[in-house]
Amino acid sequence: MSKPTIYSIAQRCGVSAATVSRAFNRPELVSEPVREQIMAAARELGYQPSSAARGLVTGRAETIGLIVSDITNPFFPLLVRAVQRTAERMGSALMLVDAEESAAAEVAHVARLRSRVDGVIVASPRSSSAALREAARGLPCVLLNRPLRDLSSVICDNTSALFDAGDHLYKHGHRSFALLAGPSASWAAARRSQAIRRWARGRGVELTELGPFRATFKGGRQAGAALLETAATAAFAFDDLTACGVLAELAGRGVAVPGERSVVGCDDVLLAKTVTPSLTTVTAPMDDLGETAVQVLTRQIEAPGGAPEHVRLPGVFVARDSTGPRSGS
């Protein structure tokens, strides 16, 4: 049996092929009875409309791009899933690209995707503001975890949750803290460091700043070694992957957590729940971040030239087993 086409549907329904095409691509131009007849015939024949052909009519690729800074970081899988599910629900496929922590690659990927997608989401970008503006010129674009005045953005604001984390440690008797800073090109790292500094000044406690460290397990081990050179009894790691490296380094050196040191992460990825001890951290609303980013991007695609949207979603502090009373308190 030959593959069904709009012509075989047209013949079955006694209408023109142009009417069948409009029923799929511009349904508002076809009367409801005729449209229902065409759809019923399509189902009976097993017809699947071609997205490429539909694109010729609508001028859309029906695909969005998602560029992540480092696909090996466990922060991203849940985010990718949330973006993909929302995109599919809104009728778009997803094209995923890994920038491998390279600002230059990030910008190059935006340029490559331009002719293949209707818009792009750039998650945790490392590029400069000027480079991002230039790369996204004329292309619907949403930044995740990076605010920029003239580009739409969706960010997780962890400020309040990090204050809660600090207060949690303070109540456990800690008065000397270490900030294990994340990558220097990361807006999120700068924002989190800023929040922790503000909390420490408000509490009048000692804060030793170390790093920056790469947001990797190895970077976390290096941060753990640096932590042991200080008098700090509690540490804020940039993210959960870094914190897991810190825990491994402390365990390897026989340092008890939380008995001798307390460690706080950020993002609440799967590792945070499965590592021993389980990690005190800040939960990022992954589903909401991904869903909101796609919704904002879709509005840009459908109404280009509109004002940029800026959405902030709060993180939530979660206390687990990697924090406890200061030794001797």
From TrEMBL:
Keywords: DNA-binding, Transcription, Transcription regulation
Residue ranges annotated for the HTH lacI-type domain, each copy included: 4-58
Source taxon at top rank: Bacteria
Keyword Membrane tagged: no
Species this protein is from: Nonomuraea aridisoli
SMART domains, alphabetized: HTH_LACI (SM00354)
One function term, GO molecular function aspect: DNA-binding transcription factor activity
Stated name of the protein: LacI family transcriptional regulator
Keyword DNA repair (UniProt): no
CDD domains: HTH_LacI, PBP1_LacI_sugar_binding-like
